[in-house]
Specification:
Blueprint (H helix, E strand, L loop, with lengths): L11 H7 L4 H19 L5 E6 L6 H18 L3 E5 L28 H19 L3 E4 L13 E6 L7 H7 L6 E4 L6 H12 L2 E5 L2 E5 L6 E4 L2 E2 L5 E2 L4 H14 L6 E4 L11 H15 L1 H6 E7 L25 H14 L2
Parallel strand pairs: 1-2, 1-12, 3-4, 4-5, 5-8, 8-11, 11-12
Antiparallel strand pairs: 6-7, 9-10
Length: about 350
């Protein structure tokens, strides 16, 4: 193999022993997990907002942002449950570019995955310890989920990974909601196959072990739009798209039919300010149709302290270094608007 083996990384158990979750923090996570589970099973009618930066690039501004979410959620918690996005693993279409804090705990420095592992655990731990938030992260590498498995309350499988067998099998052994995005091609059958696989039991190899999973009944759809054969972004958040997804679910026999709508990516045509309109449109669709309301459990929104995005090295505090995000003022107003509009 044409590989250079740099160093042996610590296994998740070693990292968790070094940076343990206390009994008090474990209790907060258990309470959050149960509340989120009830939303996906239909026992609770709260609306989920999975919201935060496209990529968690630096601890200080991310925690600053999360502290603001804490204040807002306290005001809307009767209707909305917020799951902050702390995305520390970033897929790249061509494989090039910033791959997240796991790879580069400092975006200006060369990759350092040992310190990356420690940094992402520290960041997720800080969100839980300091603000009472268990968060969402993307499962870019299934083998790495265990480094954060005692801290996360939501896992996303990206559009480029949703057809991968190991992602599907790992998702079947996770005990929290796992969202399966529709692929970049837009083929919903691929997404539904991934959900089916994740909800079933499997025997497979994971981190060198023969494992048996129980199946994850909380695996569900994320509608994020797609790119057509001509390279044009096509949205799939509209009322007709959601009705169609409901009909597909009805024929599937899957447990807990559920969907999260991603307001950015191909749904917004990569125009981040469109997220405001799209979020309001989805809420209107829920209010209009009981079946859609019962299925659509929430939104995924890319948001940070400052509007837009910057290049790596510009060092504008709280501004995304990957996809453009809604700034804080617009985000706060949108959350209040959603809370006021939900029926």
């Amino acid at each position: 193999m044409n590989l250079n083996f740099v160093r042996k990384l610590p296994i998740p158990k070693q990292v968790k022993t070094r940076y343990p979750v206390t009994e008090d923090l474990a209790a907060i996570k258990a309470q959050r997990d149960e509340e989120i589970k009830k939303i996906f099973t239909g026992e609770s009618d709260k609306f989920i907002l999975i919201i935060g930066p496209c990529s968690a690039d630096s601890k200080e501004p991310v925690l600053d942002y999360i502290s603001r979410l804490r204040t807002v959620e306290d005001e809307v918690k009767d209707k909305i449950l917020i799951i902050p996005r702390i995305y520390t693993n970033k897929p790249r279409t061509t494989g090039d570019g910033y791959k997240g804090m796991l790879h580069q705990p400092d975006p200006d420095e060369t990759p350092d995955m040992f310190n990356g592992i420690l940094s992402i655990r520290d960041l997720h731990m800080s969100a839980l310890r300091d603000y009472g938030f268990t968060c969402a992260d993307e499962m870019l590498y299934p083998d790495n989920h265990r480094y954060l498995s005692d801290l996360l309350s939501y896992v996303a499988v990206g559009a480029r990974s949703v057809e991968n067998q190991q992602h599907r099998l790992a998702a079947s052994g996770i005990a929290i909601p796992v969202g399966m995005k529709n692929p970049t091609s837009g083929d919903l059958s691929i997404m539904m196959n991934a959900i089916t696989a994740a909800q079933h039991k499997h025997t497979f190899i994971y981190r060198g072990w023969e494992c048996v999973s129980e199946g994850n009944p909380l695996a569900h759809a994320i509608m994020r739009g797609y790119v057509d054969y001509a390279g044009k972004c096509v949205s799939n958040y509209h009322y007709e798209d959601l009705v169609r997804l409901f009909e597909i679910y009805q024929k599937s026999g899957l447990a807990n039919p559920a969907a999260i709508v991603d307001t950015n990516h191909a749904n917004s045509g990569k125009q981040y300010l469109e997220q405001i309109r799209i979020a309001n449109d989805v809420v209107y669709s829920r209010n209009h149709n009981k079946d859609v309301k019962n299925m659509v459990k929430g939104l995924m929104i890319e948001s940070y302290i400052e509007d837009g995005a910057q290049k790596i090295g510009e060092h504008i505090y709280g501004k995304s270094i990957t996809d453009p995000c809604l700034g804080w003022d617009k985000t706060r107003q949108l959350i209040y608007k959603i809370a006021d509009t939900l029926e």
